Amino acid sequence: MRWLVGWSSTAAGVGGIGSAGATGYEGETLHPVGSQLLWGDPDPLWAVGDWRPDEVRMVKADGDNRIAVLGICGASDEELRRGLFTARGGALRHLTAWPGSYTAVVKVGRRITVCGDLAGARPVFHTPWAGGTAYATAALPLADLIEASLDFAHLAALLAAPDVPAALRDTTPYEGVRRVPPGHALVLRAGAREIAGYEPVASLAVAAPPADPDRAVDAVRDALVEAVRTRLSAPRHVPDLDPGPVPGMGPAERRARRGMPVPGIGADLSGGPASGTLALLAAGLPGRPGTLLGHGTGAGERLLAVTFNDLAVGGREAELERAGALAANPRLHHVVVTGAEETLPYAELDGPLTDEPGPSLVTAARHRARLAAGSADHFTGHGARQVLDAHPARLADLLMDRKRRHLVRPVAALAKADGSVMVPARVYGAARRLARTPYRAGLEVLAERLMRRHLDEPGGAVGASLAALTWARPGPAARWLTGEALAEVSVLLQTEADRSATGAQRPGEYRARAALARHAADLRVLEQAAEIRSQRLHAPFLDNQVVRACRALPEALRVQPGARSSILRRVLEGAGVTDLPPGWGAPSHASSAAAARTGLRVAADPLQDLFSTPLLADAGLVEARVVRKALRDAAAGDPLPLDGLADLVSLELWLHRLLSRRGTCWTGTPARARAVPSGIQPRRDALASGA
Question: Suppose 481 and one of 31, 311, 485, 575 were both cysteines; which one would form an S-S bond, judging by CB atoms 3.0 to 4.6 Å apart?
Answer without folding.
Answer: 485
